Structures are given as structure tokens and as C-alpha cells.
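Hi W.,

Here's what went into the run:
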Amino acid sequence: MKTILKIFLLGALLLSMTYVFASESSYPLADVDIAEDEASLKRGAMIYYNTCRLCHNLKYVTYKNLTEIGFSDKEINDLRGDILATEKLSSTSTKKALNELYGMVPPDLTLMAKARKQGPRYIYTLLTSYHETAENVYDNKLFPGIKMPDIFAYSVALTAEEKTTIENKAKDITSFLVWAADPRAQERKSLGIYVIGYLIILSTMFYFLMKRVWSRLDKET
Amino acid sequence: MSKVMSWIDRRFPLTSFVKNSLTEYPTPRNLSYWWNFGSLAGVVLVIQIVTGVFLAMHYKPDSMLAFDSVEYIMRNVNYGWLIRFMHSTGATAFFAVIFIHMARTLYYGSYRAPRELMWWTGQGLLLLLMATAFMGYLLPWGQMSYWGAQVITNLFGAVPFLGDELVVWLRGDFVVGDATLTRFFALHYLTPFIIVAAVAIHLVALHTVRSSNPSGINLADKNNIPFHPYFTVKDLYGLCIFLIVYSYFVFYNPNMFIEADNYIPANPMQTPVHIVPEWYFLPFYAILRSVPDLLGGVIAMSISVMIFAAMPFLDRSKIPGGARYRPIYRAMFYLFIVDVLVLGYVGAKPPEGFLIPLGQIATFFYFAVFVFLPIISTYEEKWLRKRGLPAEVEQMMRCEELQKCERRQRKADRRKSER
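Here's what came out:
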């Protein structure tokens, strides 16, 4: 038993080290809770549909996939129009137009929540770090020189109320992108409980079986 | 049943095989849980092969399709996310288990006679495992996959005269590209089966020399117990505990050991800000970077992996039980572990400021441990003998001497009678 404890302590030590290893970015990320509820996901999806989709693709997400976050077939039909339900969510602008406008094609957003360190916090912070510079143009504190415009107009929001509205929008789009990056997360987490529960019961049984088998030795000697 | 068995036994030694390797295979009764990690490594190997075969059914080793096919597996294949995360977490688990297995061998001096061949086949297995892991890491074709492979294959350019040709030969192209991906996939599918064969050799050697044990000497017959049921049940219990930890990462933290950059498709035109290898290569990577000259760094890194094989020669002490009865060796062992962790930390960070001298000191210390071990272990033994060994150790050494004498006597007798 002592050895098992030692092994666990060793594991805990190594794990805590990985937190030390994880390098910090220069600009602090906002510490924010991203909701996972359906309402927030749906609001986030609508923000993507109406705003982000002007420039960004979601190349691994189809219209049909949206049923997984609570959209009804009718809602999806309204969204897709005459596009097939199995089509991917893609930008409404052509690559050529985007290239002319920004000098690049804006990145695909599907995996963004995984492709940055602490992705959800990164996305939220990015959207709420726009500010006005002295020359009256926008810039971003997290990503100076960013080409993406301040779509939620955070840099010119005047009242605290306006800012909160935008922050909530940023939270919704973040929670939608977290789902887009890892749509099987819910299934994974709920299956995990059963697997780990089963293993705990099994290991307890093996523990007592082991005690019983080994007790034969004590009787002999 | 007995009829069937005797039919088989006349054609294949099944009963004697089960007897020799399970029901009557003598195992020291004093093994601690540290001795569970060998069988755990075997189980992880099976997990990796099984999940790997299923992944290969959906994966496309083509630079245009590879990244998308991995996402396809995670999103659209039934339980594809489970297979993929089991495989990616399995790589981490494999190295964790193997490193503990090695640390146990070092701590208890299990590499000593007569188990040198076990230690050397193990060293070969470590190299095979590293090669397999390195090639497998290219397959998701993310940014870190691509640039990791680019950096590591570049190292072969340091080989004198042949360097540049060698790099092109390995990559199949002037840069890491489609040709590299395809051949790495082919080899990544091949090497696990070579590992299986090498494990078989490792086990044949094990069944000849039997398990070492915390006391460091071969126990008398009465202290050996059959592997089954005592150690089958103990290994199963250990396996369950291991699987709980493993499942936690698979189900609740699967991206912990995947670099964020690897979710960006490989882009040969854009180098990531900071290229880091997987955690299990970090200490060796730190050693590579600590030597200012590239060729020197590559040599130092290769030696740092291979030097473990020299342990049976470097450790000159005759006192059994490894670190248990040897305070200086024990202190060296723990300092070495700390040093490896320091090197890992240095390897994970960009080489700036105090990390450069820190890495160099840690590299120096890493090799110093091995270089000074012969002298230190000789003097330690003298000092311990002068101070007086604990009675039990004296007795064990006498006991082992006795066993050796008896064996020699028996051999001599046999020779005499043969004449």
C-alpha cells in the first residue's frame, strides 16, 4: 500500500510540474467561465451565422451537426436555405474578396478553441481586448496589429452596460466554438463516469481477492 | 478434457509451458508494487497496437488528407474520439510506465548479474519505443508534428560527410513532406511488431534469470511462490489502478499531452514560435541544446539515451539491493531523478537567460553521475564494509556466496561423474 501511495505522489508531482512547464503568454487571459448550456450554444451559433460567417469557415461542422446543440430541423432549414444539410458551414465571402480586403484568408474557426493554449479563455480575451488607439483606430491588446475588425465594437462601447452585452456575446461565441472544436466532449465525459466507476468497483474486488489469495501464504508459514 | 490436453501435449508443450511460465513459475514473494510496471508496459503495448490498427482503418497517410482524416475520426467515426484519445494518451502512458520501470531497475540494481541481457534488451526496447513514438507523432500532420520531424531529421545532417544525403534519404525529399509522412506511417505500423518480438526475447530472458527483488539477491526456493495465482491477481489489481488514472486522462483531460499548435494543420511556410518535442523527449532535447556545437549536441543526446546500457559495468559495488543498503548510491539516484526533471523543465522552455547555464550544469551533472559511478561505488563499498554492514545484508551476501559455491560444487561434481 505504501508503494501505491508513493507512486501516486510521484504522479501528482509530475502533473504539477506540467503546470509549471506550460508557458504563459505575455498578455494575461481573462479568467472566465464558459457556459455549456444549450441556450448559450444556440446563441453562439447564431452569432457565428450572422457575424463571423462573413469571413470565417467552420469546415468540420455541417448544418446537420447543429441538431446536436438543440436546433430543430425547421430552424436548420431556415438557416441553410437551399444549401444541403450535409454541407459545411462556410464563409459567405469568396476567398478572392477576403484576400483583397485583408491580404489573407481568415483562419478556419472549427479548432480554434483547441489550437491556442487555454483556447476558450484566449478567444474570449481576444474579442474583449479591442481598444481605440490615439489615432482613433482600433487595435487589440492580446493580438497587436490584428487584421480582424472589432466586430462587436467593443473598443467604442461607452457604457458599462454596453460592454457587458458584448462580453456576454463573446462568452456565447466562445462556448459555441468550444463545442465546434470538440463536439464529442459531452458524450466523452458522460461515458467516462461509467468507465471509471466500473474500474473502481473492479479494482476494489481485485484488492480483496488479492488479500484473500495472499492470505494462504500466511497460513502455510 | 484430459484427452484433448494429452493430444495437444504430444504435439505441442502446452501443459509444460503453462506450468513453467505461470502455475509453477517461481517468483520472489517480496516484490513490491514497483514490480507491476513491467506487465503494465505489456498491457499498454497491446492497447497501442489494438487502437492503432483501428485508427489505421480510417487514417489517410497523405499530406493533403492526414489532418482532416484525424478530425474525421474524432467527429464522425463511431467512438473514433475514444480510439484516438486512447492512442494519444497511450503514448504518454507508455513512456510514464517505461520510465518508472527503468527507475525501479536503477534503484534496486536489477541490471546487475545475471540480468545484464534483460537490461540490454530493455535498452533496445526503449530505442524502438522512442523511434515509434517519434514517427507516430508526425501522423496527425499538425504544426508541431511537422516541425518536430523537421528539427529531429535535421539532426542527422550533423553526421560528418554523409549528413546531407542521409537527411534527404530519411525524408525522401529535401524537406519533410508527403514522402516522409507515407514512410513514417509504414514504419510506425511496422515497429510495434518488432517491439512485440523484442518483448518476447525480454521475457525469455526473464524466465531464465527470473525476477529480481528488493533484496537484490536470488532468494532461496522457499521464498519463491508460483506466479499464478499470487502475481496474476496482484498484476490485475495494479492494472485496474493504472486504468483508472489512464481513463481520467482519456475521458476528462485528453488534450493535456497534445500541444495546442498541433491542432493547426502543418504549414511548411510558417515556423511555430516555439518548437517543443513531446514531454518524454524533453530531458534529451535539453541535453541536445546545451551543447553549443550541433554534432557535439547530437552525440551527447545519443549517449544520454544509450549510457544506461553501461550500468552493469559502471556499478562496481557488490552490496545487494541496489540503493536500499547504499546511502551514497541512493542519494545519487534521487539527485539524478531531480536532474532529469530539471532538464525536462529546461527542454520545455525557450533557451533564454539563466536557463542556458542551468541546462549546461544539469547536462554536466547527468553525465558526471555515470562517469564517477565506478569510483564512487567502489569507495562506497569499502566505506560501508569498514563501517559494518547490517547483519541481514551480511547474511544475504553470505547466502548468495553459499548458493554460488553450491552451484559450482554441483557443476564440478557433475563434471567429475561425467569423466
